[in-house]
């Protein structure tokens, strides 16, 4: 009897614990009293709020509440723009005590709805924290505030002949803290690897306001768990990144790029193999755009790589870049590759254009980097950022188009284009669907269809953009229950009140 009562009470305890851990934490809305508290330690221009006594019109908050794609929209009343780590710490301490949800925001260029609130959480913008703290031109270690714009960091280190280890189309707006928080991949990953390798240290304000100063500039440091790795790609769910220490490589002495037109997608893989063999250490990017992506980029003024005759019969294009130490050496290697390609019995390419000037180099890159913007001008974009075997890129784009056709959705008033582009060298396809509007019909034709397709290749449903708000329900397609459970426990350790970027990454 005693035994069964103990068992019953143990069961009851388990049930209670289950209830606690599965319940959504209740978060509080910001009030005028909170604003009065923030005003004690923040300058007036660091507080934007529709609440009194600040009372700005909602239109001033709009850009912070809306994401880059115009797909996600929050209803926050307040944006804080602190200037120092101590101010961030005080904000977090208060929000932790008051159970106020906080959304860290960088350049707001994220593509999965992670950077905007889903309700009325406080928006903590890092845009006023934009100072370079130090740069060592010998080791290449750069320490910067999280709010530094990626492009300004590139410009800052350029006179020292260094470059940032990452580059992406959003470089003019995205911030280094946002890059780290999304573990952004981009156009240089093939050469310099992921941020998990190049970030040397981080300064992070934890949800309760504690400052974790891990801003090391050491190349090697095996003292226990490497905590910074947890914040790289955490999408603001574990803390606010306020400072970043990052290893910047020496700038290559010479760079070249070439755009290649391919008669069929089948040729992409053999071309990649051949490029690796011929170019080895100087191959720094191998990017892919399909015909639709190319035509949209040209249509929307994102550069023009080839003439109309040259693109005749081309199914897709590859933008290949080399970065090396000696101009003649690199050009010789590239020319041998091009000759091999054109002179073979069954040429892998129909034509290719090698950039002849810095301006043409930039223009060829614009053609690739400008694709997201060009696609966005065609309507509303559904974006699937997936890792799958390179050989399957076309299959996935075609299967998705076919699925939309079957559902009767492939026409001007519904889905206008199904597009494929991406980082072939990294096995990362960007499958984009340009539609007249975001509608439940299109969404249910695409999901779970795309996720199931990706899972059938044992791929990843998020190669580089993250989970954000978009994919919380789909994370199980790429991660096991054991892994998701561990993630939940980590989140609980860092953020027991669930205030950090609520309902992002984990449901
Ligand atoms: P935001 O969009 O503001 O935030 C993104 C996420 O990080 C959010 O969850 C936010 O809460 C969190 N966050 C931001 N700052 C902090 C911080 N300081 N501390 C804690 N959390 C924070 N991505 C790629 O990976 N590769 C690409 O090639 C690429 N190209 C792009 C091209 C275009 C045109 C656009 C619009 C986007 C592109 N992206 C790309 C996606 C996006 O730009 C990157 O993910 C970028 O790293 C986001 O930086 P951000 O400062 O804009 O962050
Ligand atoms: C890119 O590679 O261009 C980016 O990741 C943006 C996008 O996917 O649209
Ligand atoms: Zn990308």
Automatic annotation (TrEMBL):
Q: Which domain of life is it from?
A: Eukaryota
Alphabetized Pfam families for the sequence: FAD-oxidase_C, FAD_binding_4
Which segments constitute the FAD-binding PCMH-type domain? 72-251
Q: Which InterPro entries match?
A: FAD-bd_oxidored_4_C, FAD-bd_PCMH, FAD-bd_PCMH-like_sf, FAD-bd_PCMH_sub1, FAD-bd_PCMH_sub2, FAD-linked_Oxase-like_C, FAD-oxidored/transferase_4, Oxid_FAD_bind_N
Cofactor(s) the record lists: FAD
Q: Which reaction does it catalyse?
A: (R)-lactate + 2 Fe(III)-[cytochrome c] = 2 Fe(II)-[cytochrome c] + pyruvate + 2 H(+)
User: Cellular component terms, GO, for this chain's entry?
Assistant: mitochondrion
Question: Keywords on this record?
Answer: FAD, Flavoprotein, Oxidoreductase
Q: Which SUPFAM superfamilies match?
A: FAD-binding/transporter-associated domain-like, FAD-linked oxidases, C-terminal domain
**GO molecular-function annotation terms?**
D-lactate dehydrogenase (cytochrome) activity; FAD binding
| Family recorded in the similarity comment | Belongs to the FAD-binding oxidoreductase/transferase type 4 family.
Q: Know the name of this protein?
A: FAD-binding domain-containing protein
């Amino acid at each position: 009897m005693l035994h069964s009562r103990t068992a019953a009470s143990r069961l009851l305890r388990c049930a209670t614990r289950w209830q606690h851990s599965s319940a959504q934490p209740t978060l509080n809305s910001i009030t005028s009293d909170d604003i009065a508290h923030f005003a004690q330690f923040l300058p007036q221009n660091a507080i934007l709020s529709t609440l009194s006594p600040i009372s700005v019109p909602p239109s001033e908050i709009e850009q912070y509440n809306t994401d880059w794609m115009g797909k996600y929209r929050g209803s926050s009343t307040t944006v804080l723009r602190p200037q120092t780590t101590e101010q961030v710490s005080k904000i977090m301490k208060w929000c932790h005590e008051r159970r106020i949800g906080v959304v860290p925001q960088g350049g707001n260029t994220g593509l999965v709805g992670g950077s905007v609130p889903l309700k009325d959480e406080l928006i903590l913008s890092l845009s006023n924290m934009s100072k370079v703290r130090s740069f060592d031109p010998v080791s290449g270690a750069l320490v910067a505030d999280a709010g530094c714009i990626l492009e300004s960091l590139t410009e800052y280190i350029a006179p020292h002949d260094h470059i940032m280890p990452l580059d992406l189309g959003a470089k003019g707006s995205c911030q280094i803290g946002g890059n780290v928080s999304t573990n952004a991949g981009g156009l240089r990953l093939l050469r310099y690897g992921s941020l998990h390798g190049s970030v040397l240290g981080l300064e992070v304000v934890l949800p309760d306001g504690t400052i974790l100063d891990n801003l090391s500039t050491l190349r090697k440091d095996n003292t226990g768990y490497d905590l910074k790795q947890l914040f790289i790609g955490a999408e603001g769910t574990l803390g606010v990144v306020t400072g970043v220490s990052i290893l910047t490589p020496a700038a290559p002495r010479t760079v070249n790029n070439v755009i290649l037109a391919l008669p069929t997608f089948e040729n992409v893989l053999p071309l990649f193999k051949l490029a690796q063999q011929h170019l080895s250490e100087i191959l720094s990017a191998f990017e892919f755009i399909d015909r639709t992506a190319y035509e949209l980029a040209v249509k929307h003024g994102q550069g023009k790589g080839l003439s109309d005759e040259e693109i005749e019969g081309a199914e897709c294009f590859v933008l290949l870049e080399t970065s090396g130490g000696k101009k003649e050496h690199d050009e010789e290697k590239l020319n041998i590759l091009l000759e091999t390609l054109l002179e073979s019995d069954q040429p892998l390419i129909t034509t290719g254009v090698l950039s002849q000037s810095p301006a043409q180099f930039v223009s060829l890159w614009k053609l690739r980097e400008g694709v997201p913007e060009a696609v966005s001008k065609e309507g509303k974009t559904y974006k699937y950022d997936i890792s799958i075997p390179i050989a399957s890129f076309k299959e996935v784009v075609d299967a998705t188009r076919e699925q939309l056709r079957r559902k009767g959705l492939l026409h001007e008033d519904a889905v206008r284009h199904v597009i494929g582009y991406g980082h072939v060298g990294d096995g990362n396809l960007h499958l984009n669907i340009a539609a007249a509007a975001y509608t439940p019909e299109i969404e249910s034709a695409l999901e779970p269809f795309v996720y199931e397709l990706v899972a059938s290749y044992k791929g990843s449903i998020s190669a580089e953009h993250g989970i954000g708000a978009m994919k919380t329900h789909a994370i199980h397609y790429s991660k096991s229950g054991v892994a998701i459970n561990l993630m939940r426990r980590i989140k609980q350790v860092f953020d027991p009140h669930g205030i950090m970027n609520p309902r992002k990454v984990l449901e």
